[in-house]
Amino acid sequence: MGSQEVTDWQGKHVTVAGLGVSGIPAAKVLRGLGAIVTVVNDGDDERARAQAAELEALGVTVRLGDGATLPEGTELIVTAPGWQPDKPLFTAAAAAGVPVWGDVELAWRLRELDGRKPAPWLAVTGTNGKTTTVQMLASILKAAGLRTAAVGNIGVSLLDAVLGEEEYDVLAVELSSYQLHWAPSLRAHSGAVLNLAPDHLDWHGSMEAYAADKGRIYEGNRVACVYNVADKATEDLVRAADVEEGCRAVGFTLGAPGPSQLGVVDGILVDRAFVENRQKNAQELAEVSDVTPSAPHNIANALAAAALARAFGVPPRAVRDGLRDFTPDAHRIAHVTDVDEVAYVDDSKATNTHAAEASLAAYESIVWIAGGLAKGATFDELVARSAKRLRGVVLIGADRALIHEALTRHAPEVPVVDLGRTDTGAMLAAVQEARGLAEPGDTVLLAPACASMDMFANYNKRGDAFAEAVRELGA
Asked: Are strands 261-265 and 248-252 parallel, antiparallel or unpaired?
């Protein structure tokens, strides 16, 4: 189904799967292009009914409480990224030969609508660090004087960016594995996979399928496929990708870089990929101290962002200025305050073991506050690798016993306080217990390695509760 000509959409029967941040804009755009749009949605609550009324006023048909049945005459499905591939709707679509796109695919197909000159996409995926890297990248591109925006899975609609009145020189695009799964024709200028660790396996079905969807970000890249030297699986995805002739593999490393890599030498971020005679030359980009926070995994994020920016031709000075200008979002290794010579750090965003391990690696001596919903994760590897840094551990949340068992196996000498609570007031108790375990020079670190929904609405609320509890200590 072509989409470069508006007439292609006139009278086409399109089914949008799911209301929400991607479904509603997609339905509106498609209806505006003259398509006959039906929205199907599993839920039928007050919010969904209000959203349905808004769309029905525009001439969109909405079916609430029935996301399984393929509407008669459907020629294309545009799905919310979170809908699992094995849903009955998609089984029916496959049987009927109906293509399924995500909102990213729709945005990609519409980017040349009305003769527009589309902005190239610099795309980022990975298990952890995507949002921070994309925001750093946008900051660097802006420092170079380019018109840009951080869009995609970051919460800013790609459809709005592609079809809005504002013109961009380049877009910094965060893409989840879900979005990549449903974006078969996406071809970025350059792409990066930051890291790969087990996550969302219930959705993808296996680690291999999850990795393969992440790897789609490299398909058709024109200039650079950016990979993590410390994570061989990301380099394997580059090797497997079908790219345009002349596209290069560019690695980033926390060590000294080889040719075609970015890395760190004596506290300096350096580029040996986008320089003349990269066998012998290196270009200084920024200092480690220009990156906030300068924890190892965040330096890796900065190097990945720098690699994509350099692939787009950004000068070294803009890399430095952009990194200096960047302020990370809340709840990402955020230093709350010091109390009695103990630092209190909120990394509530560390909702899986991979993110928590990166967080724990940033400090020498830690009292760790952990626990929540495990989402099927196991904790042996995390605890074994981090045991030597732990002064003590305070456990909260529904699945805390899984972490406790791993601590018993791999860090039996580390004192553990198991609060046995899942109420929101548990955070104040956890912080007070952590204070009792900490010694001057230690860091009390909230890096739960679990999701928050057993106790809090989201990881932001969990982090807020931690910060409030810390402030009560210092009062």
From this structure: parallel
Considering only CA atoms, which of 337, 377, 375, 381 is closest in space to residue 360? 381
Q: How many helices (H) and strands (E) in the chain? A: 17, 20
- Residue 151 is classified by DSSP as E
Q: Model pTM?
A: 0.81
C-alpha distances out from residue 416 to 198, 201, 394, 441, Å: 26, 30, 6, 19
- Rounded (10°) CA dihedral 41, 352, 156, 68: -10
CA distance 455 to 423: 6
Return the ∠ at Cα 281 (arms to 290 and 265), rounded to 5°: 35
- Which of 372, 375, 383 is CA-nearest to residue 406? 383
Residues in a beta bridge with 443: 343, 366
Q: Which helix (H) or strand (E) holds 11?
A: none
Closest to 443 measured CA to CA, from 398, 399, 384, 391: 391
The 8-class DSSP code of residue 354 comes to H
Rounded Cα distance between 431 and 411, Å, is 21
β-strands 334-339, 342-346: how paired? antiparallel
Specify the length of the chain in residues.
475
- Whole-angstrom distance, CA of residue 201 vs CA of residue 224: 28
Q: Tokens 């209000």 map to which residue?
A: 50
pLDDT tens digit string along 97-150?
Answer: 999 999 999 999 999 888 888 999 999 999 888 999 999 999 999 999 999 999
Provide the 10 A C-beta neighbour count for residue 164: 11
Q: What one-character DSSP code corresponds to residue 23?
A: H
Residues 384-423 pLDDT 10s: 999 999 999 999 999 999 999 999 999 999 999 999 888 8
| Residues 42-71 pLDDT 10s | 989 898 999 999 999 999 999 999 888 999
Q: Bridge partners of 77? A: 15, 100
CA distances from 172 to 120, 123, 137, 310, 319 (A): 9, 6, 7, 13, 14
Q: Any alpha helices (H) in 193-352, and if so which ranges?
A: 201-204, 207-215, 232-240, 296-311, 316-325
The dihedral through the CA atoms of 195, 196, 197, 202 has a sign that is: positive
- Cα–Cα nearest to 414, from 450, 368, 356: 368
Nearest to 246 by CA among 267, 280, 223: 223
> What is the β-pairing status of strands 342-346 and 268-271?
unpaired
Residue 42 to residues 56, 91, 218: CA-CA distances in angstroms?
A: 17, 16, 33
Rounded Cα gap, residues 191 and 318, in angstroms? 20
Q: Which residues contact 38 (CB under 8 A, 6 or more apart)?
A: 13, 14, 15, 16, 60, 61, 62, 63, 71, 74
Whether 347 and 447 have beta carbons less than 8 Å apart is answered as yes
